[in-house]
Amino acid sequence: MTDRYQTFTRTPLGRTLVKNLGLPDPAPLPRWTEGAAVIDGPVVFGAIGETDAGKAIQALLRDVGASFSTAAEGVASSELRPKALVFDATGASSTADLTSLQRFFSPVIRQLGTAGRVIVVGRTPELAASPEQQIAQRALEGFTRSLGKEVKRGATVNLVYVAPDAHDQLDSTLRFFLSPKSAYVSAQVVRIGTGPVVGNDPDGPLTGKVALVTGAARGIGEAIARTLARDGATVLGVDVPQNANDLRQVVKSIGGHELLLDVTAIDAPQRVAAAAEQLGGLDIVVHNAGITRDKRLANMRTDTWDAVLDVNLRAPERITAHLVESGALKDGGSVIGVSSIAGIAGNNGQTNYATSKAGVIGLVQALAPRLSDRQIRINAVAPGFIETEMTAKIPFTIREVGRRLNSLQQGGLPIDVAETIAWFADPASAGVTGNVVRVCGQSLLGA
Fold it and tell me: What is the C-alpha separation between 161 and 369, in angstroms, rounded?
């Protein structure tokens, strides 16, 4: 759906009113296109000391062909318009080291280019070598969340915590956050642990993989299916029989396979596993199917409550358990759940929906350590206001508030959710598990 207000702000009259009245000024967000570079402008790199993480970051910048300079080289020139600022804070061992954040960012933050990227890399606080280091590293979260609300013109800020000896796992995550693929992801905290180093083609990271996507017939599910197929995966799309025509069109266009199925059916886990086995087993499972049945709790019937929990939470729980136990999900695979910021912040009239989506986060947290012995990763995305047929039906005033109530001052697109899921699914993200990443432009709800 077209954001007419954003279009208006690009006109001469709109620019005048935005400037004089202090109205929201959402900048157009570039999305990734085939053949595009990971980062299309200069990068400024800074660090607290010389660390293994810092060396890995600089190696990645060289690998993607980025032109980068260091803070020590005097990059505060007024002519410089960096596309990204990357700071290695893993060397911070006490709060005294936090002054380095101000010294690095203050001279250059105003110069950050349109749709720029700010990435801070820290050491996982829970794995710190001392209480002093843990305090300093945890402080980075407040810094990045606040800076995300200060930067303008479509820029984003994210924090990546890396475990000791896991610097070799930074590649896929830094590529994602540097690139337009993360256009609507800001003020997020990602934790990276150790895992096998997987070398693959960044242009086809899912080649040879089989991916299950539920709710694949339209909207966000369709975008997920198309994006995973773009990255090389064979997609098994699942949707209810009522959406048969839409599902058939999607899977035909991407060379995938269809499975007409209500995920709440008693035999749904077994039918999914059987279909997966015909394709040689699953590497990726995306639980996207979801419904809403909004009512305030005082007016909600039990069947309305259960319908939402059955689709959004109980079905993913049952299907995942069976796929793991039966071996239909291969070792080294990836499970991705679709949660919501409603599951983090709550929402009026959505006690059932918010309960189900918070439960998806619980599923990730419960299973991440239990699946690690088979090197199966599990993560979740939590979308905010995404432009879909569903949000297009929201009353105008509420829809406009939803769009503007985030640091990027606009709604996201289904592709933003899909790109985040593709990053989770990438085998090179072997160290990324147990994470919940909001795709919400830093929504001010639950932020």
Answer: 18
- The model carries a pTM of 0.95
Q: Are 108 and 151 in contact (CB under 8 A)?
A: no
The Cα–Cα gap between 287 and 268 comes to 13
Q: How does pLDDT run across 295-310, given as a tens digit for each residue?
A: 999 999 999 999 999 9
Which residues, at least 6 apart from 443, have a Cβ–Cβ distance to it below 8 Å?
341, 345, 384, 385, 405, 406
Domains 42-192 and 210-439 alike in fold: yes
Neighbours of 146 (CB within 10 A): 11
Structure tokens at 104: 């690095």
H or E segment and range at residue 300: none
Overall size of the chain counted in residues: 447
Give DSSP secondary structure letters for 216-265.
TTSHHHHHHHHHHHHTTPEEEEEE-GGGHHHHHHHHHHHT-EEEE--TTS
Report which of 251, 266, 262, 174 is spatially closest to residue 218, judged by C-alpha positions. 251
**304-323: average pLDDT:** 97
What do you get for the CA distance between the two ends of the chain, in Å?
Answer: 25
Report the alpha-carbon distance of residue 48 to residue 100 in Å, rounded: 7
User: Are the CB atoms for 413 and 31 separated by under 8 Å?
Assistant: yes
Question: Are the C-beta atoms of 169 and 430 separated by less than 8 Å?
Answer: yes
Phi, psi of 305 (to 5 degrees): -60, -50
Known active-site residue 353: yes
Phi, psi of 437 (to 5 degrees): -115, 125
Q: How far is the C-alpha of 398 from the C-alpha of 289, rounded, in Å?
A: 24
Q: Is 70 exceeded by the pLDDT of residue 173?
A: yes
CA dist 130 and 384 (Å) reads: 36
Calculate Rg over the CA atoms of the chain. 22
pLDDT of 401 above 90: no
Superfamily covering domain 210-439: NAD(P)-binding Rossmann-like Domain (3.40.50.720)
Q: 60 in helix, strand or coil?
A: helix
Strand partners, 343: none
pLDDT digits (tens, 9 = 90+) for 335-349: 999 999 999 999 899
The structural domains of the chain, with segments of one domain joined by +, span 42-192, 210-439
CA pseudo-torsion sign 8, 13, 15, 19: negative
Q: Which residues pair with 43 in a beta bridge?
A: 68, 84
CATH code at 42-192: 3.40.50.720
What is the rounded (10 degree) CA torsion for 87, 92, 94, 95?
0
One-letter amino acid at 34 equals E
Q: Is 338 exposed, middle or buried (0-12, 13-18, 19+ CB in 10 A)?
A: buried
